[in-house]
TrEMBL record:
The family this protein is said to belong to: Belongs to the helicase family. DinG subfamily.
Biased segments, Low complexity type: 118-127
Any one of the GO BP annotations: nucleobase-containing compound metabolic process
Major enzyme class: isomerase
Substrates-to-products reaction catalysed: ATP + H2O = ADP + phosphate + H(+)
EC number: 5.6.2.3
Region entry Disordered, spans: 117-138
Protein name: ATP-dependent helicase DinG
Residue ranges constituting the Helicase ATP-binding domain according to the UniProt record: 1-300
GO molecular function, one term: 5'-3' DNA helicase activity
Highest taxon of source: Bacteria
Length: 663
């Protein structure tokens, strides 16, 4: 892997490298990248990860270790920096623009936080001004005050006020001390622009040889002409199996009547009564149109929802113009609050304009959310063009993950990010064109002996999954397998409802077993308990399918209740399948089956995390062996020994228990 990455940096040929769990792929690309930077001090390389967790691991563990080695060998120590999106740093305008009551200033935020967490207000003391009164003594108020004090300490000490380093807090508290991209005034206009944490983080990135960022910021940089990242000569994309999803998310938008109403109310102070009332009314116009619409993709320009969007667009355009004028209706400087409110109105205008256009490159649909009501979503039909034009054609790029091959080949992954089959240098049918982006794919394997360490059990005799929920037969199978494993089970379910039903059933049937279920506490707390309490089981949904790393005998059984196909009525996936079919391809296999294969491989990969791990992956969906696409899905999973005999799986799990007890 290191040799292949080094070749990409010297030749410019793009590289897709599948590196199995346990390979040490972070060092597999860091070693050649840092060696290259030591020899080429004018170059800069960007490493983009999917998660903040991997960013933190790279910055605190992997990169320092690699830098020590590079310095010993070359005598040079390249500089590195972590760069995140704007909302991950505290905003001094938000921090210093908030007035703190003298009463609140008498104690520190840490004191208030300890008080709030240790003693909640009760109905026994409802007196105004008594314990629990006022924002300072509520948990939220205490968190905000603690965050402000921390931000000031960071400013005084030369820190970056990175959220990962902040005191304990929730998302609502963080929203009080940070600012979304749209609402930022910019360093030139902000009174605290010269000491802005975001600007300092960007300055550090410009001084660094290696910049660690995330997929979303890489996408934003591509969409906005290279303004988010410093100039660089090469890109490494880690966790590349998530790239399409993350870039899609960064290029997507949503608009709801409730959000539209909040934006309108925020702008009322600076609008005349007529325009302010008209802006507020657009929320009702959109709400009424959505209530009559089916939750599906919009393609008809005369659809009532599209007509409502045009109304929103036209009114929002006038609002943006009015919000850009200062006192007396003159163009020029406006106060910071007005400018921020105007930026939010501009975001509404941009979204409404984009959605109303119904562009071929976009998918616009009505989404029905149980609690929040209906809203509109827009997402790009494909991110391949964006990645090809603004990333791959600009820089040599390495993409790596434990799961990049689908059906035994890199073609599907390459196509999804803008690389074409005919461009492969190892493809004899390749025809040279003016826009060839040369690439190759390699699989460096895994240090694990999957056939000896793991069993893949497919419950062929169970009934196929139902749309209306998990079947009684499947619940019975879950309980028996958990019993055989003595707990130690990670349950990966297709829906929250299925996870909760399975957890309730196992708790009834196996009263001496502890089963944790996603949603019952913070995910970080649940995964910590799962790791620390070996006989405990953890059931959950999509966020547990990838990223959770629990080696050892804590996890000896992974249960997958249903093949993770996207919902057949999900408009974006539907549109992508239709586009492939219309282009002459197989929409189901190239979109839905590929999506399921990658996620299935990630889920099964939770079992074997080190060379001494043993266990069973139990897929309780018979289609994995009975359907025509089953072999395609299995070829993407770790190559474990496979059986459809439940007794074989149960006895294997029992033997693991007995071996533990004997030792």
């Amino acid at each position: 892997m290191a040799d292949a990455v080094a070749a990409t940096l010297s030749t410019g040929q793009h590289l897709l490298v599948q590196a199995g769990t346990g390979t040490g792929k972070s060092l597999g690309y860091l070693a050649p990248v840092l060696s290259h930077l030591a020899a080429h001090p004018d170059d800069r390389v960007v490493v983009a990860t999917a998660t903040l967790a991997l960013q933190a691991q790279l910055a605190s563990k992997d990169i320092p270790a690699a830098l020590d080695a590079v310095e010993r060998v070359t005598g040079r120590r390249p500089r590195h920096a972590v760069l995140k999106g704007r909302s991950n740093y505290a905003c001094l305008l938000r921090v210093r623009d908030q007035v703190i009551d003298d009463q609140d200033a008498l104690v520190t935020g840490a004191d208030l936080l300890a008080q709030a967490e240790g003693a909640r207000p009760t109905t026994a003391d409802p007196t105004p001004g008594g314990p629990g009164a006022g924002p300072g003594s509520s948990a939220l108020g205490a968190q905000v005050l603690a965050l402000r004090e921390w931000a000031e300490e960071q400013a005084g000490g030369g820190g970056l006020a990175d959220r990962d380093d902040a005191p304990s807090h929730g998302p609502k508290a963080w929203a009080q001390v940070s600012v979304p991209v749209r609402e930022c005034l910019g360093a030139a206009r902000c009174p605290w622009g010269e000491v802005c944490f975001v600007e300092k983080s960007r300055e550090k990135a410009r001084e660094a040889d290696l910049v660690v960022t995330n997929h979303a910021l890489l996408a934003i940089d591509a969409m906005h002409g290279g303004t988010a990242l410093p100039e660089h000569t090469a890109v490494v994309i880690d966790e590349a199996h998530e790239l399409v999803g993350r870039v899609t998310g960064a290029a997507s938008g949503e608009l709801s009547p409730a959000h539209l109403e909040r934006v309108a109310r925020r702008c009322l102070t600076w609008l005349d009564d007529d325009l302010g009332g008209e802006f507020l009314d657009t929320a009702d116009v959109l709400r009424e149109a959505l209530e009559e619409a089916a939750p599906e993709r919009l393609t008809d320009p005369d659809h009532p929802v599209v007509q409502a969007l045009r109304t929103v667009r036209d009114v929002a355009r006038r609002v943006v113009s009015a919000m850009g004028r200062g006192e007396g209706g003159q163009s020029g400087e406006v106060d910071p609050e007005q400018r921020q409110a105007g930026s939010v109105a501009k975001e509404v205008f941009d979204l409404a304009e984009r959605m109303a256009a119904l562009a071929e490159a976009d998918v616009v649909w009505v989404l029905d959310r149980e609690r929040a009501g209906r809203e509109l979503r827009v997402a790009p039909l494909s991110v391949a063009g964006l990645m090809r034009s603004h990333v791959l054609s600009q820089h040599p790029t390495v993409l790596t993950s434990a799961t990049l091959q689908v059906g035994g080949d890199f073609t599907a992954t390459a196509a999804s990010i803008g690389l074409q089959t005919r461009e492969r240098t190892d493809d004899p049918t390749r025809a040279p064109t003016e826009e060839v982006l040369s690439w190759r794919g390699i699989d460096v394997g895994s240090p694990f002996e999957y056939r000896r360490q793991g069993i893949l059990y497919v419950a062929e005799r169970l009934p196929p999954p139902r749309r209306d929920g998990i079947t009684p037969e499947t619940l019975t199978e879950v309980a028996e397998l958990v019993w055989a494993a003595g707990g130690r089970t990670l349950g990966l379910f297709a829906s929250q409802r299925a996870a909760e039903a399975a957890a309730a059933h196992v708790r009834r049937e196996l009263k001496d077993h502890t089963v944790l279920c996603q949603g019952e506490a913070q995910l970080s707390e649940l995964t910590r308990r799962f790791a620390e309490e070996p006989e405990t089981s953890l059931f959950g949904t999509v966020s547990l399918w990838q990223g959770i790393d629990v080696p050892g005998d804590t996890c000896e059984l992974v249960i997958i209740d249903k093949l993770p196909f996207p919902r057949p009525d999900e408009p974006l996936m539907q549109a992508r399948q239709q586009a492939v079919t219309e282009a002459g391809g197989n929409g189901f296999m190239q979109v839905a089956a590929t999506h399921a294969a990658l996620l299935l491989a990630q889920g099964a990969g939770r079992l074997i995390r080190r060379a001494t791990d043993r266990g069973v992956v139990a897929v309780l969906d018979p289609r994995l062996v009975t359907a025509r696409y089953g072999a395609f899905l299995r070829s993407t999973m770790p190559p474990m020994w496979t059986t459809t005999d439940r007794e074989v799986a149960v006895q294997a799990l029992r033997r693991l228990q007995e071996t533990r007890q004997a030792s």
